[in-house]
Write a structure and sequence with these properties.
Length: 348
């Protein structure tokens, strides 16, 4: 079924164009995208928010009690109380994780279907997206598990290198401190400052080296979910095909996804700061009100973020296909077919 919306610019796009079209998709399908997200992620968000809200409210109450009357919470009792709450939170989070995984997968696939339909000037109901999501869920799950294992292996390898680097830096820093002790006072201070700055720079490079590969792999596999929905790729095939699509555009894909997640970081910090502020303001009045604040915040965040993330990945996927497969011609044909009126005898 055709829909009235601006036709997708079927040409290679700049990063600015990709972001612009991501926002356009979000605006054009706002009600359906939000409803789709709400069906799957709001219940999980509310449950998670209640759990986190109770935990954080407990933390706030403990801190306030410890500040107002330190004798009530000696240091040992304070640490035990905090540890018990952390253990309870970890247990509840483990129970919630399978439900969250299923809900995230279904929402991601359904949102991807809606975004692809928007680019092709085709309308689809929320139920259409849910049906497609269920059909492709197991491919998504397999892909997600393989990505998770790959990321875990990558983190372990990087952590080992990070530990070796930290040990070497500690040895170098110790040697520098020993040599600085033999330098005259004025020169020693300058040398110490220089050594400290050098160490900070090196540690900064190590941090970049830690997160850089994770961002790179995330960019190379960003087209996997759209391909699962659009071309019915399997779990392994989706990772292989996404890697192939981004072969000559690896840093562009990585940079675009970093921009998207930077945008998410801004949204996340703003919403969580608002949540903590409101919770701290009402915690003395009502612990229940504080829990409700966290629950609402946890439900709102995915409504704002998940549709944007999936629209961004769909845009990147289509741009990569245009650059690699002359997909712009196929897009134009699809749009023309969507505009054909079935009841028109000339169209038969």
């Amino acid at each position: 079924q055709a829909m009235n919306s601006p036709a997708f610019a079927a040409r290679p796009l700049t990063l600015g164009d990709l972001l612009d079209w991501t926002v356009r998709i979000y605006r054009m399908r706002f009600s359906k995208l939000v409803l789709t997200t709400a069906i799957f992620l709001v219940p999980i968000g509310l449950i998670s928010g209640i759990i986190n809200g109770q935990t954080m409210t407990g933390y706030l109450n403990i801190f306030l009690a410890a500040i107002q009357n330190p004798s009530v919470f000696p240091e040992e009792q304070f640490m035990n109380t905090m540890g018990n709450r952390q253990d309870a939170l970890a247990s509840l989070s483990c129970l919630l994780m399978p439900l969250s995984l299923v809900a995230t997968g279904m929402a991601s696939l359904a949102l991807t279907y809606q975004a692809i339909g928007t680019l092709r000037n085709q309308d689809a109901t929320v139920m259409d997206g849910i049906k497609v999501a269920w059909q492709r869920f197991w491919s998504w799950l397999g892909m997600t598990l393989m990505m998770g294992l790959a990321f875990i292996g990558l983190v372990i390898a990087i952590a080992i290198l990070f530990g070796i680097g930290a040990f070497v830096l500690a040895m170098i820093f110790g040697g520098l401190l020993s040599s600085i002790g033999n330098i005259p006072t004025g020169d020693g201070v300058a040398a110490g400052i220089g050594a400290f700055c050098a160490i900070i720079c090196v540690y900064g490079l190590i941090i970049i080296a830690f997160f850089g590969p994770l961002a790179y792999f995330n960019g190379r596999w960003a087209a996997a979910i759209p391909g699962i929905v659009d071309q019915r790729w399997g779990a392994v095939e989706s990772l292989q095909e996404s890697w192939t699509l981004t072969r000559n555009h690896a840093w562009r894909a990585t940079g675009f996804m970093l921009l998207v997640y930077l945008f998410y970081g801004v949204i996340y910090v703003a919403i969580m700061a608002l949540g903590f502020g409101l919770s701290a303001a009402v915690v003395n009045t009502s612990s229940l009100a504080s829990v409700i604040v966290f629950a609402v915040i946890s439900a709102i965040l995915p409504l704002l973020w998940q549709p944007i993330q999936m629209a961004a990945q769909v845009m990147l996927y289509h741009d990569l296909r245009i650059r690699n497969e002359s997909y712009d011609l196929e897009m134009q044909i699809s749009q023309l077919e969507a505009e054909v009126v079935p009841d028109d005898p000339a169209a038969l």
